[in-house]
Specification:
Blueprint (H helix, E strand, L loop, with lengths): L7 H14 L16 H9 L12 H17 L6 E5 L2 H16 L5 E5 L5 H9 L2 E5 L9 H7 L4 E7 L11 H11 L2 E5 L25 E4 L12 E5 L3 H4 L3 E2 L7 E2 L9 H38 L3 E2 L7 E5 L3 H10 L5 E2 L6 E4 L6 H17 L1
Parallel strand pairs: 2-3, 2-4, 4-5, 5-6
Antiparallel strand pairs: 1-7, 6-7, 8-9, 10-11, 11-13, 12-13
Helix pairs in contact: 2-9, 3-9, 4-5, 9-11
The protein binds pyridoxal-5'-phosphate.
Pyridoxal-5'-phosphate binds next to helix 4.
């Protein structure tokens, strides 16, 4: 750090230059994040100093968090849900498994996750010392329920289902997992980090939430498809007993116990989440999801004309295309200014069709992709 500070103008011009190096979302088809809604941005700014790590000092912000949890509980069919707003899907998954582990007290615990699980479960294995066993997928990239069953042993404490896989946007058979969890007396965590703000708003109905009696926790990220600001993840448990398992005493705060992973944490993104949920309502999200699905199908129709097929028919706004040598297609797209990504197995081109994309840039993207496929 310099001894003498720089004037504000100098600092701001440095920031402008650096911001100019970031890729604008309009060119990004590889991310599950997007521009936050303007009302979320304003709410974020208004609550910028609020620290939910010490909620007794921020009674209004603390009320907002309880209200967001209640709204999400209702969205996922559980008015009794308890939880909090985390920093994202990773923290939600960590804390869900953390609570399960503490509740069970098994000496060498394991959980069973789909092979398609997000890499946050590898962090969980490392941090929580819970063995993570991976069950293979069926031909449609849903977890194979009989393989999950085969992996259950005396040390298994829980199973995980994914409602909206990061790579394929596929939904695991959560009803079957719920039945299995009940029969085997196991916890069932549903990772709907991405799908939590897509699935409820699709015209097709999928069972994936607390309406299924075996589901004990749900993760759903407001900073992905709900237009909130980063960091905002939702973690909900079926009832308060799970949060109790995460409790530590807090000697010098306005409250006597804390259940969150972070200490000091943002009230701003919680206020942003509240603002955008209140403002958009179910109808607003239905419109957004419908538009993303139209763009997804429009893009698919266009590339199909050029002979490019999807690995699965898109269930949500994630499109995985079967292209030979996906890595080189990805770098050629990058040369043309597009950020796309790839899946691990099979090696295919992965596109997330987020609300920041328009019909016009989808067509331009499709033209570039078809051109690369036919001419290299
Ligand atoms: C994005 C995602 C995560 C991780 O969420 P972060 O907010 O990046 O921590 C976890 N699970 C699924 C299914 C996801 O799509």
């Amino acid at each position: 750090m310099n001894a003498h500070g720089a004037d504000e103008e100098t600092v701001e011009s440095i920031l402008d230059e650096l911001k100019g190096r970031d890729t604008p979302y309009e060119r990004i088809l590889s991310s599950m994040c997007t521009y936050p809604h303007p009302i979320a941005v304003r709410a974020h700014q208004r609550f910028i100093e609020a620290n939910l790590g010490d909620p007794g000092l921020f009674a209004g912000t603390a009320w907002i968090e309880r209200e967001v949890v209640r709204m999400l509980g209702l969205l996922y069919n559980n008015p009794e849900a308890h939880g909090y707003i985390t920093t994202g899907g990773t923290e939600s998954n960590i804390q869900a498994i953390h609570a399960i582990r503490n509740a069970r007290g098994v000496r060498e615990p394991n959980i069973i996750v789909p092979a398609s699980a997000h890499f946050s479960f590898d962090k969980i294995a490392d941090i929580l010392r819970v063995k993570v066993k991976k069950a293979d997928l069926d031909p449609d990239f849903r977890v194979d329920i009989s393989l999950v069953e085969d992996l259950i042993d005396d040390n298994t404490i829980g199973i995980v289902g994914i409602a909206g896989t990061t790579e394929f946007g596929q939904i695991d058979p959560i009803k079957d997992l719920s039945d299995l969890a009940l029969a085997a007396n196991l916890f069932l965590h549903v990772d709907a980090a991405f799908g939590g703000f897509v699935i409820p708003f699709l015209p097709e109905k999928y069972e994936f939430d607390f309406a299924l009696p075996g589901v004990t926790s749900v993760a759903a990220d407001p900073h992905k498809m709900s237009f909130s600001t980063i960091p905002a993840g939702g973690l909900l448990f079926r009832d308060h007993s799970y949060m109790d398992r995460l409790s530590v005493d807090t000697p010098y705060l306005s409250v006597t116990a804390q259940q969150t992973l972070s200490g000091t944490r943002s009230g701003a993104s919680v206020a942003a989440t509240y603002a955008v949920l209140r403002h958009l309502g179910r109808e607003g999200y239905e419109r957004i999801v419908q538009r993303c699905m139209e763009l997804t199908r429009g893009l698919l129709d266009r590339v199909r004309e050029a002979g490019i097929e999807p690995v699965i028919e898109p269930v949500m706004n994630v499109l995985v295309l079967d292209v030979p040598d996906a890595d080189s297609v990805r770098s050629k797209l990058k040369e043309r200014g597009w950020e796309a990504s790839i899946t691990r197995d099979p090696h295919a081109l992965r596109l997330v069709i987020m609300p920041h994309l328009t019909h016009e840039n989808m067509f331009r993207f499709a033209d570039d992709l078809c051109d690369i496929m036919s001419h290299g």
